[in-house]
UniProtKB/TrEMBL annotation:
Keywords: Hydrolase. One of its GO terms (molecular function) is hydrolase activity. Residues 18-152 form the Nudix hydrolase domain. It comes from the Bacteria. This is NUDIX domain-containing protein. Gene3D superfamilies: Nucleoside Triphosphate Pyrophosphohydrolase.
Length: 285
C-alpha cells in the first residue's frame, strides 16, 4: 500500500481513486505495415469498472511524477517490461483539484503480455481501430479519441550552427566548444517540453527525441558522449543534412526544426516539418 492509495474528491463533485491523482500508460506499437496496436487491460471483475477494458494505471504516490507512477502501476499489473517503452508525452485530464495523466509511449516490438496482479483479468494487444469494439472503462472511453490522435512522437532537430550563433557565449573563439556546450545544455529537455507550437503533437508535456546537427569544425562533437542527445555530423552542408532528416517522416513522428535561417525554414516546411526560431529553444534550456 502506497500513500496515494485512497479516495479523493474533485471540484466537479466526483470521487476518484488516488489521493494525489492518478496516471496510466497508453502503450502502443506500429508494425511494418503501419498498423497501430494498443496494449489494453481488462479489469478484474471485483474492481471498479469490473470486466471493462482500458489502459494500465492507478493512484500516484506523493513522491511520484506521473510518468514514474504510470510505469510503476503498469509493472505491478502486467508483465510488460516498461524499460522497453519510449515515452513521448503526457496528456492531463483536470477535474479541478484532482487529475488523471495519460502517459503515451511506444514500443519497437509487440511482446506477449500477461496479467501480473489480481487487478488484471487479461492483457491484450488490440488494433487501434478495434479498441471501441470492446466494452471500455468509462473514463478511458472518454479520453480515447484524444489519445488516438496523439500517438506520435516529436523529433526536435537543432541547427547547431544557427542556434550557437544566437548565444553570446564566445562561440566565435571556439566553435567546437560552443557546440559541445549546446549539446550538454540540451539535456535539460529530458524534463519535458511545454508549448510545442502549431498543434504539432497533442501533449501537455512532450518528451522529444533530440537531434543536434553539427558541421565544419564542430563535427568532432559527435564523437563525444551525448547524454541522450543524438549528434549528427553533416559530411557537407548542415542545412542539406537537416532537410534529409526531416524528409519522408512516417506516422510515428512529427519533426520540429530549430533555426532562424530563412532558406532552411522554407526547405524544411516544404518537406513537411514545422520550424521555430532559436529563442523558443533557448527559453527552455
Amino acid at each position: 500500500m502506497g500513500d496515494g492509495d485512497g479516495w479523493a474528491g474533485c471540484d466537479l463533485g466526483h470521487t476518484h481513486w488516488g489521493r494525489f491523482g492518478a496516471a496510466g500508460l497508453l502503450a502502443y506499437h506500429r508494425d511494418p505495415d503501419g498498423q497501430a496496436w494498443i496494449l489494453l487491460q481488462q479489469r478484474a471483475w471485483w474492481g471498479i469498472g469490473g470486466g471493462t477494458w482500458g489502459m494500465f494505471g492507478g493512484a500516484l504516490h506523493s513522491h511520484e511524477d506521473p510518468v514514474t507512477g504510470a510505469l510503476r502501476e503498469t509493472t505491478e499489473e502486467c508483465t510488460l517490461d516498461t524499460g522497453l517503452v519510449t515515452v513521448h508525452g503526457t496528456s492531463v485530464e483536470d477535474h479541478g483539484g484532482w487529475t488523471f495523466t495519460s502517459v503515451l509511449g511506444s514500443l519497437a516490438e509487440r511482446p506477449p503480455v500477461g496479467a501480473a496482479s489480481r487487478e488484471t483479468r487479461r492483457a491484450e494487444w488490440v488494433r487501434a481501430e478495434e479498441v471501441t469494439d470492446r466494452k471500455l472503462f468509462a473514463p478511458f472511453a472518454r479520453s480515447w479519441p484524444r489519445l488516438r490522435d496523439a500517438m506520435r512522437g516529436l523529433v526536435l532537430v537543432v541547427d547547431a550552427a544557427n542556434v550557437v550563433g544566437a548565444r553570446a557565449d564566445g562561440w566565435w573563439k571556439d566553435r567546437a566548444g560552443a557546440n559541445a556546450r549546446l549539446r550538454d545544455d540540451l539535456k535539460a529537455l529530458d524534463a519535458g517540453v511545454l508549448g510545442v507550437p502549431g498543434g504539432l503533437v497533442s501533449f501537455d508535456r512532450c518528451f522529444p527525441e533530440v537531434v543536434l546537427v553539427v558541421e565544419g569544425a564542430a563535427r568532432g562533437v559527435a564523437d563525444a558522449p551525448a547524454n541522450g542527445v543524438r549528434v549528427v555530423a553533416a559530411p557537407g552542408s548542415g542545412d542539406d543534412r537537416i532537410v534529409d532528416l526531416v524528409s519522408g517522416a512516417g506516422p510515428d513522428a512529427a519533426h520540429l526544426v530549430v533555426t532562424a535561417d530563412r532558406e532552411l525554414r522554407a526547405r524544411c516546411e516544404a518537406a513537411g516539418a514545422a520550424v521555430v526560431g532559436p529563442r523558443w529553444l533557448l527559453d527552455r534550456l
